[in-house]
Every structure is written in C-alpha cells, then in structure tokens.
Design goal:
The protein is mainly alpha-helical. Helix content is 49%, strand content 7%.
C-alpha cells in the first residue's frame, strides 16, 4: 500500500512533499494541521474518498460555526488544494459553493514618531536591536530574528532579506544609527562563535539545498545568526551542537511589556513597527512604489493602505474644522 493511500502515512507524506517543494517550516506546520482537521471533520475518512463538495462543507463550517477570519479560511483552502494537487495527485474541481468568511476592512495600528521613541526606550539588549530593525528597516519579526551576518552590509548600509514572505529576497536600507550597533553585535557574535568552535560546537542550520552542497559552511561566521540564542542545542539528525536564532516570543514579550510601560494607549505589537516605518516614509514624501519595494509587497494595493493612515490624509485634504 502506498504512503498516500495509507491513512497513517498521509500526514508524513504531506510534510515530506512540502519540504521537497521548499515551503517554509511555518507553512508546513499550518498545512499539515489543516489536513489533520479536515480528516477529523469528516470522521477520519481518507481524503481520496472525498471531493469538492466535502471541501466546501468543511470551509463553510469554518466560516459559520468557527467564525474564522477570511485569511484563516483562505489558508485552509490553500492547504487542501495543495493536498489534492501535490500529494494525492487528484486536483479538485472549482471550489465555489462555500460561505465566505467576512473580510473586514481595517487600517493598521501606527505609532507616532514620539510613541516609537517611547516604546524603544523601554527595551534593551536583543529585543531592542530587533525592534530597531523592524522600525528602521521595515522588517517583519521573523526576518529580523533570522538575519544572518552575511546579509548585513555595514558599508553600503543595506540589509538583504533572504526567503521573505512568498520566499522572495529583497534589499532594504539600514539606518545610520544602526551601523555601529550592529557592528558591535556582530563582533560579539564573532567572539562567541570562536568560543563555540573551540568547544566543539559553532554550527548553525543552513538552507536545505546549500546545506547538502556545502555542509561545512554551517561553521562559518558568515552564516551565523546576528541574534543568536543564549544556549546551544544538539541537532538530532546531524549530532551537531548548534545555536538557534533568538526565539520570536522573546522579542514579542519584551515589546508588549515596553508598550504597556510607555503608556501608549494603542494595541501595538512587533508588526506595528513595520506599519509605522511605511507610514512615516510616506509622510516624508517618499514615492509609494519605493516603499512597496522596501516592504517587499507584491501588490501595490497592499502598500496603498498606508495612505489611509497618514496624518495629512490620503489625499492631503484639510479638515473643514481647521478653517473655522
């Protein structure tokens, strides 16, 4: 019996297919979880026995009973489309008879420059450096946490994001005030790395394809994380003593506490720094397509939302109340 036909091997086969197609670990976990939920919803029937009507039934259940967000429903649909096309090799028909989750139109939470200053002043150490990159370079949280030494160009004042959202690379600016901060941080990483190597460690996880091609690169300084974890771990597969990057929850908790301590009465998070980066650039008169490129947005409409939160209004309109 093939691994696809065997219910017990369906999820491992799905996971292996996702890895073979170079999906990110987070996407892998989400897709496998949706396949698991889908199978349980249909009382453990194998997906080969199900088709478009059963998929529509599951997605409608998510919208009506679970009241999930539109993005969550879309993610579930993407996972099931992947399952049928890439794993089961029986693509679904057109999925249309479902109740769509409502897509709310919301503007992002944005901090003023003074509020950014107050929140950052309440941070220190690694969380502060990561937060400064989120605001100063427009990085996403995981892009900041997984930054490698080789992708920081202090001379050109550039940061290269590798495998960002949509598995795309991009370059963005590095603020002048961050050059010396990162120079010192990379020097700390260099010293710690040398000590790890002397003690038999010093390895770091590599992208899968490159890891097979140049396995020894995992001990080079260039591939080390700019913000490494404080402790080492032993990789089960290779037996190497590695240092992971700082976990995102460390930064999230620190930012949450700093926002509370600052007295800023906004529901701000790590991603709020990225929203503020885009909005403040537009306020300073930079072209929206430049901002789009720096953010790594595929669609200009995604960037356009920031024109609705500018202090001067998206069209530069003055309030009638200001003329009284």
């Amino acid at each position: 019996m093939s691994s696809v036909s065997d219910p017990a091997k369906l999820l491992p086969h799905c996971r292996a297919r996702l890895r073979a197609l170079h999906y990110s670990p987070r996407t892998e976990e989400r897709y496998v979880d949706w396949v698991r939920r889908y199978v349980r919803f249909h009382r453990l029937r194998h997906p080969r026995e199900l088709d478009t009507p059963e998929v529509e039934q599951f997605l409608t259940f998510l919208a009506i009973e679970r009241k999930v967000a539109a993005s969550t429903q879309n993610q579930a649909l993407a996972a099931l489309l992947f399952l049928y096309k890439e794993v089961l090799r029986q693509p679904l028909g057109w999925v249309e008879d479902i109740v769509r989750a409502k897509q709310p139109v919301r503007v992002p939470v944005v901090l003023t420059r003074n509020e950014v200053r107050r929140v950052l002043s309440g941070l220190d150490g690694t969380p502060k450096m990561v937060a400064q990159l989120l605001y100063g370079s427009g990085l996403r949280l995981m892009e900041g946490c997984t930054l490698r030494v080789k992708d920081v160009d202090l001379e050109r004042r550039e940061v290269t994001v590798r495998g960002g959202k949509g598995n795309r690379d991009r370059r963005t600016m590095l603020g002048t005030q961050m050059v010396e901060v990162l120079r010192q941080q990379i020097e700390r990483v260099r010293r710690r790395h040398l000590n790890d190597v002397r003690c038999g460690g010093g390895w770091v996880a590599l992208p899968k394809a490159y890891g097979r091609k140049s396995p020894r690169a995992g001990r080079e300084l260039a591939w080390q994380w700019v913000f490494p974890a404080s402790t080492e771990h032993t990789d089960a597969a290779s037996g190497q003593r590695r240092r992971h990057h700082v976990h995102e929850t460390v930064v999230q908790r620190a930012v949450k506490e700093a926002v509370h301590a600052s007295g800023v009465a906004k529901r701000a998070s790590c991603h709020t720094f990225r929203h503020s980066f885009a909005t403040h650039l537009l306020e300073d008169g930079y072209d929206i397509r430049t901002v789009q490129e720096l953010l790594g947005h595929r669609d200009l409409n995604t960037t356009m939302i920031y024109t609705h939160v500018l202090n001067r209004g998206g069209l530069g309109v003055r309030s009638p109340g200001d003329l009284l």
